[in-house]
Amino acid sequence: MTTADLPYVLAVVGAGPRGVGVLERLGANAAELLGGRRLVVHLVDPFPAGAGRVWRYEQSPLLRMNSMPEDVTVFTDDTVEIDGPIRPGPSLIEWARLVREGALDAEVDESLRAELEALQSDHFPTRRLQSAYLAWFHREVRAGLPPEIEVVEHRTRAVRLEDGDPQSLWLEDRAEPLAVDAVLFTVGHLDAEPDERETALADFAARHDLAYYPAGYTADVDYSAIGPGETVLVRGFGLAFVDLMLLLTEGRGGRFEEQACGGLKYHPSGAEPVVHVGSRRGVPYHSKIGYRLRGKPLRLPKFFDSYAIGKLCAVPGRIDFRRDVWPLISKEIAWAYYSELFTAHPERVRMDFAVFADAFADAAPGELDALVARAVPAPDDRLDLGRLDRPMAGAEFGTAEEYGKELREYIEADLSRRADPEYSADLGAFMALLSVMGQLPALVQTGRLDAASQLSDLDGWFLGFFSYFASGPPPRRLEELLALQEAGLVSFLGAEMRVSADEERKAFVASGASFPGETEARTLVEARLPEPSVSRASDVLLRQLRDSGALGEEAVLDPVTGDRLLAGRIHTRVSDGRMLDGEGRPHPRRFALGPHTSARSAGAFTRPRTNALPFRQNDVVAREILRLVT
C-alpha cells in the first residue's frame, strides 16, 4: 500500500466557530486541492462542536451577544477576497427567519423558541440562541463535506503532542495517542495563570481572609462566595464587567422593570452585593450603535491600506506606532466619519463634499483640524479621537456623588447618540476601525514596528481603544447599569483607578483621580480577560509544547538594548498561520489561528459583506493543509 492509499490525518484542537470555519474551507477547497485522497479530521474539544466554550448552550440565559443578528455571519460572501470558492449562507437573522418559516431543519431547544420567534435584526440575541445557530452551521458543514473527508469528534481535551511522522496527540480520555499528520490549533482567548501582581494580591487575600478574583472568563468563574450586601471592588469597566454586573444582580433574583417615563427601575432581591467599579478611563465601553449608514457607500481602506503600509516601511529606521502609524489610522477613521457626515447630513456642513474630500486627502495631520473647523460648524459634529479615548481626563470632582452624576449624564448622552441616526457618522468611524483591524497583520508581519511601541501602543493602547469604541455592550446593559446605580447597588470609582493591598487595614483600598477619598473592601474582582501569555498559559497542552521548545511565544527585538520583549501571543507566521517554535522556526505541519496568535484578528464574529479577515485566514490555512495532503 502506498502513502497515497492511506488517509491524511488532521487534528483540529478547538472545535468552536473558528475550528468549524476551517473545516468548511477544507470542504470548499477539496475539489481543487485534495486530489481524491482521503482526509480524516479529528475535532478535539471538551465543549460542543460549533459553539465551543464561549457560545455553548449551557450558560446563563441572562448573557447576551454584543452584536445584532444582522451583523453576524459564519459564511463567506462575494466581498471576501480568497483563492477558494465562495460558499454563501444565512446570517444569524436570516437563519432565524428561515427556521421560523420552516425552511431549515434546525434543532432549537424549546427554551429558545419564544426568543427565536420574536428576534428582529436590531435585537441582541442570547448567547444560547447563537449556540443554536453555530450548532446548525456545524451540522451543515459536516453534511456538505465531500465523501473523501471524514470527521471524527472527541469531546475531550488534548493534553500532549509529540513530533514525529506521524505526530502523536494524546487526549485526556484515551490511553493511546492519535496518530496525526498535521495539527491545527484554533484558539480563542488564552486562559492564564495569575501574573506577578495578581499573585501578590492573591497572597495578600489569603493572609487576611479576603477574596480576590484574578482575570478570567466571567461566565466560568464562581462568585457565589460574595455575600449579600458585601462591598466589592471591581477593576475593569468593559464587557467582562457587564457580565459580572448581571450575574451578581438579576442573576441573584432581582428584576428590572420598564418605566412609563422611560428607563429602567431595579427591584432588588436582597442577595446582591454593592459593587464599586472603576478603570483607567473611568467610563464603560460605548454602547453598540443601533442604526445603519445613510450616506454613500464607504470604500475602505483608503489611507491605511497595503500601499500606505509599504510606503511606511520603505523609510529606513524603526516604525513607531504612535508617531508613524496612528496618523494614518486616525485619518482613515476621520475619512469614514466625515464621508458619512457629508453625504448623509449635508445640511450640517458648509463645504461641498468633493471639495472637502480633495482638501482632506492632501491635508497633513496638523492641517485637518483647521479644515474641519471651516467645513463643520457644530463642535458636536467634529470627530475628537483624543476626547473619545479619555473622556474624563483632567476632570476633577469634589465628591463621589458629583462624579456619579457626571458619569450618569455621560452614559445617557452616549445612549442617546448611538440610538439617533442623525449621528450615523459614528458608524462610519466604526466601519473604518474594522477595516484597520484587517490591515494590522500585514503591518506586524513586516517586523518593522519598534518593540516597545508594538507592545504598549498597538497591543496595549490601540487594541484597547478598538474594544472600547467598537465592541461595547447592547444599549440595555447601560440602561441596567444606570438603574443599578439608582438603586444604590453600583457606584463609580472614577478614572485612573488604583487599588492597594493595605496591610494595616487588612483590606483592599481603592481610589482614583476623579475625586478625593477611598473605598475599602474585603473583595476585589478583576473584570477582564487575561492578557495573552504563552509563558503563563494554563492549558496543559500549550504548557507542554512551550516547555519542550516546540511552541514559541511571539517576541519583538528591541534594537537599542538587543532584548527580546515577549508579546505573550502564540508565535505564528502571519502569512500562512504556521506555528513557530522557541527558535522562531516554522513547523511544516502545525498551524494556529485566533486572536492570541501573531495575526491579531479581532475576537468577534464577522459582519456580512466586509471582506472579513478571519475568513481570509481560514481559507489560507485550509489550502495550506490540503497542499500537504497531496
In brief, what are we looking at here?
The protein is built from 17 helices and 21 strands. The chain has helices at residues 17-33, 92-100, 113-118, 127-143, 196-207, 239-248, 306-313, 321-344, 353-362, 368-375, 385-389, 400-417, 425-445, 451-470, 475-486, 540-548, 613-629, and strands spanning 8-13, 39-44, 149-154, 158-162, 167-171, 178-180, 182-186, 211-213, 231-235, 255-258, 264-267, 274-278, 490-494, 498-502, 507-511, 519-521, 523-526, 553-557, 564-570, 578-580, 586-593.
Structural topology:
Blueprint (H helix, E strand, L loop, with lengths): L7 E6 L3 H17 L5 E6 L47 H9 L12 H6 L8 H17 L5 E6 L3 E5 L4 E5 L6 E3 L1 E5 L9 H12 L3 E3 L17 E5 L3 H10 L6 E4 L5 E4 L6 E5 L27 H8 L7 H24 L8 H10 L5 H8 L9 H5 L10 H18 L7 H21 L5 H20 L4 H12 L3 E5 L3 E5 L4 E5 L7 E3 L1 E4 L13 H9 L4 E5 L6 E7 L7 E3 L5 E8 L19 H17 L1
Parallel strand pairs: 1-2, 1-7, 2-3, 7-21, 8-17, 9-12, 9-17, 12-13
Antiparallel strand pairs: 4-5, 5-6, 10-11, 14-15, 15-16, 18-19, 20-21
Helix pairs in contact: 1-4, 1-17, 8-13, 12-15, 13-14
Can you describe what's shown?
It is built from 17 helices and 21 strands. The chain is α/β, with parallel strands linked by helices and 630 residues long. The chain folds into three domains: 3-191 and 533-629, FAD/NAD(P)-binding domain (3-Layer(bba) Sandwich), CATH 3.50.50; 196-285 and 473-526, FAD/NAD(P)-binding domain, CATH 3.50.50; 306-399 and 417-470, no CATH class. The strands form six sheets. Strands 3-2-1-7-21-20 form a six-stranded mixed sheet, covered by helices on one side. It has a five-stranded parallel sheet with strand order 8-17-9-12-13. Strand 20 and strand 21 form a beta hairpin. Helix 8 packs antiparallel against helix 13 and helix 13 (425-445) packs antiparallel against helix 14.
